[in-house]
Amino acid sequence: MEQRYATSPEHVPGMDTAELRRRYLVQDLFRPDEVGAVYTHHDRVVLLGVTPVSRPLDLPTFPEIRSEFFLEHREAGVINVGGTGTVTADGATYTLTKGSCLYVGRGVQGVTFASEDGADPAAFYVMSAPAHTAYPTTLVEAGQGNVRELGDQLTSNRRTLNQYIHENGVKSCQIVMGVTTLHPGSMWNTMPAHTHDRRMEAYLYFDLPEDARVIHLLGEPTETRHLVVANREAIIAPSWSVHSGVGTASYSFVWGMAGENQSFDDMDGFAVADMR
């Protein structure tokens, strides 16, 4: 498990491209027949990529979290960004098509990920945060969450947002999670940009062609930087940072938050003209 320590806004002006990427860009989460893991000290979130190709993969217990099993003190949201697969949680098996979401509550001891025979390998993206109580493991199939249409074609940011784990949907202690897909011809996500000082956020970009990239903005609104992001790469966005991007091709992304509250609309917006 790789560890990323927390940073403050004062760090950003002195960072070069290599350091920005080392601190905020998560690469190589999805390796065949492996479980990739990054622990960020921003709200103690763990990001995992699970890619069962030739065999099922168990969710391991990492020594860095000092638990008897991974979900002893944690909860997790799982979204499949690959072919159809299954997640077995304490003996109950759930089938996840591409874009489907499974919430797994605190206290679940055995979690196993597998791809369906004959299908493209599944690729499970997992976001985990500390939890103070247990909520039921719950599956939401792709497109069956709370759907919100945002943006405008005239500003190239028309997008469909599917909320899965949120205050009025699947119950969790603190995770909020869903998938956003841009409409054809739209390339911008989350613009105008915002911050939410009460929650960190992580993005996983997917369905991006291999030769395409997303230019992701981060940093304080008046001190922005950018990262060039490829398919199935993730961004760690501290609570003080904007999190917005524009692609060279259409794409989707998994967004996940953890922190002080679960109110999706608790954010501080910034006009485009005020950004620097």
From TrEMBL:
One BP annotation, GO: D-glucuronate catabolic process
Q: How is the cofactor bound?
A: Binds 1 zinc ion per subunit.
What is this enzyme's EC?
Answer: 5.3.1.17
Which key words tag this protein in UniProt?
Isomerase, Metal-binding, Zinc
Coiled coil residues, start to end: none
As cofactor, the record names:
Zn(2+)
Q: Which domain of life is it from?
A: Bacteria
Which class of enzymes does this protein belong to? isomerase
- State whether keyword tRNA-binding applies: no
Q: In which pathway does it act?
A: Glycan metabolism; pectin degradation; 2-dehydro-3-deoxy-D-gluconate from pectin: step 4/5
Sites where the protein binds Zn(2+): H194, H196, E201, H243
Spell out the molecular function terms from Gene Ontology: 4-deoxy-L-threo-5-hexosulose-uronate ketol-isomerase activity; zinc ion binding
- What's its catalytic activity? 5-dehydro-4-deoxy-D-glucuronate = 3-deoxy-D-glycero-2,5-hexodiulosonate
Q: What does this protein do?
A: Catalyzes the isomerization of 5-dehydro-4-deoxy-D-glucuronate to 3-deoxy-D-glycero-2,5-hexodiulosonate.
Q: Which family does it belong to?
A: Belongs to the KduI family.
Database matches in NCBIfam families = PRK00924.1
Supply the PANTHER family for this chain.
4-DEOXY-L-THREO-5-HEXOSULOSE-URONATE KETOL-ISOMERASE (PTHR38461)
Put simply, this protein is called 4-deoxy-L-threo-5-hexosulose-uronate ketol-isomerase
Species this chain originates from: Flavimobilis soli
